[in-house]
Design a protein that fits this description.
Blueprint: H1 11-21, E1 39-42, E2 51-54, H2 56-60, H3 69-73, H4 78-95
Antiparallel strand pairs: 1-2
Length: 96
């Protein structure tokens, strides 16, 4: 859901979010790519360059049900998920 108070994304932010959504989920490794894009989770609203790739379940669904269940099982925080996202983006860029 888009907040009324959130500024529109800039071109570079939009491109970054597009690339993030192509990655698999940073928590459970599900999805990614054009056919099953991830969602871009903003750690802080409006700061798109700190968005991490999450599947719908880890972002807002069943994996998130009991106090971020899978996050606890994997012992991950939002910053851990961001680190995975950045590492994958950098690896993708290096291989291109």
């Amino acid at each position: 859901m888009w907040s009324k108070n959130k500024a529109a994304m800039t071109g570079p932010e939009r491109e970054h979010v597009r690339r993030v959504k192509l990655l698999p989920c940073s928590i459970c490794d599900i999805g990614g790519g054009e056919s099953a894009p991830s969602e871009a989770h903003e750690i802080k609203q409006g700061q798109w360059f700190t968005a991490c790739a999450l599947c719908a379940d880890c972002h807002r669904g069943s994996h998130n049900s009991i106090g971020r269940g899978i996050w606890r099982v994997k012992k991950m925080t939002e910053l851990d998920a961001l680190a995975v996202t950045i590492r994958r983006l950098m690896t993708e860029r290096a291989s291109a």
